[in-house]
Structure formats: structure tokens, C-alpha cells
Amino acid sequence: MSKLLNELNKWDITALEVGATIDKLLRSSEYRNDLNGAIDRVKFLKPWVTDNDIDRALKLLKSLSILRA
What is the residue range of 48's domain? Predict the structure, then answer.
């Protein structure tokens, strides 16, 4: 558990929020394994999110082995 917490502490709140939303969408029946669709949906739900925010969130998910590189 401490390893996970140490990893999460490296990321800002926006990366964590966007990453969690992408992960949730990818687990849903509507966006299962549709990364581009999930990203488009995040941009719709959270119009303040930038491409840089998305990139950081994807790096976060890869660092946690939630997404493959």
C-alpha cells in the first residue's frame, strides 16, 4: 500500500482526477477498451481539461499498469 501511495503522491490533483475518470470510463460497457472514446468523453465532461492534462493522466495510468505502454 505504501508503494501505491508514494506513486500517487508524485502526481498533481488534475492528473489524478482525469486519470480516475478515464479509468472509470474504460471499465464501463460504453467505452470498454475504447481509449479515444473515453478521452473524448472526458473532454466533454470536463471542458477545462487540456491535452497536457490528458497526457499526464495517461502517463499516470501507465505508471500504475492500468494502461499498457
Answer: 2-63
